[in-house]
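Quick log. Single chain, no ligands specified.
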Amino acid sequence: MRRITLLFLTLMTSVLTAGQTPNIVLILADDLGWKDLECYGNEFFKTPNIDQLAEEGLRFTNAYAPAPICSASRAATLTGRTTARNGFEFVTKNEPGIQPVNAPLRAPPFTLNLDLKLLTIPEVMRHAEYQTAFFGKWHLNQHHQRYLGWSPTHGPKSHGFEIAEEDFGAHPYSYWNKKKERTFLDLPDGQVPKDTMNERAVSFIESEHQTPFFLMVSHFHVHTPIHTRAKWLYQKTLKRIPEDHSRREDLAHYGSMVATLDHLVGDVVKAIDDAEIGEDTLVVFTSDNGGHPNYAGNTPLRGSKWNLYEGGIRVPFIARWPETIPAGKESHTPVVGTDLLPTFAEIADLPAPEGTDGKSILPILKAPETEIDLRPLVWHFPYYHPESGFQEAPEEIGINDGLTSKTRPHSALREGPWKLIHFYESGRDELYHLEEDISESEDRAQSDPEITQGLRKKLNRYLNSVQARLPIANPDYSE
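-> predicted structure:
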């Protein structure tokens, strides 16, 4: 089937010539929360470059990551397929296995590698004669030789990227020692540490291109370890955080990482504009999942990375394409990361591959007031978290409590303003009206039983149709 699809794409693009379609640059942040940017309402962090991107383009307020966790979200984004359809719902590991959690249910076995049979964005775009390049965090193969190491058989070049260079850049992954010492470099005010990963992306943009390109800049910021080496930036951020804040120093380091990400995004956009290809380049900026509860907070959203409350999956999403996307606009239409593949395919005058769950949002990009048919959005997380210390973790998933709470296997579906969350241990459903209750504080499952039952049927129907992997009874569970 994959070979037939590739042949079809080739036939469809035989008449395309260079210059008919724009360059596409996808900038993906790591663990950036919905409320971490100033243009999304953060009161402590300054993000002038990303804010300017929003001013020059379109900002989505109801945008979602496909999953509340890294590998699953990236796999879904690149394939345009939900985690349930992909069978890739958690993070990749060093070795095959199952979660070592003493709980009533057993989660599915770990998925280690993105299936080579699945078509990805770069593979699709290459059939429109796009050059494809990747820099940054991959996290879609079994760790090779080191944490996050690219596999020679399942790395970016195995999934359609012609140019791909492995580099941690200036993220703490590149220097963090076992002592976890928060030391600083002697940097002048206004300067952040040199980031070789981002520089590779800038150099690619600056190079000569005979065809349109698809570039994915996959940042490691703002994932843990949380630390900045720029003392001036730390001190500047610290001053904006109230002295009585319980996590003031951690938050200052985190805010400095957000500011560093903003600086790096600014360098990429500047390279595009300096090369005078801004009007010919679509830039999309988003995050792979919601923010870490210890730092992002996610207020007013409930929950965080690792669960399917809004704090775990709602993310920033900004698109700029001068002369095509109207500047300074907002869209409140729900969109999700799986929409990117069909959107980019339509831009290149290509059909989306069979089995794509996403829907092209090109009409919204061109005219933000456009109304599209609302379709259910589905998330599937049949795992437990945290894997170690699960029994000691707090039960309640709250709002900005700074805690990593117990996440149990669950799935969710949003249709219009309504969102249903189904929990597999108890069989319980929760129902929220997001337009009236963005914090998911009022469960309306009992007061609106018909809506609850209808959404539950749609969720079950979809999961059954894609043969979603479900948790099963754990034979080793002991109370």
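Residues 10-19 have pLDDT under 50 and may be disordered.
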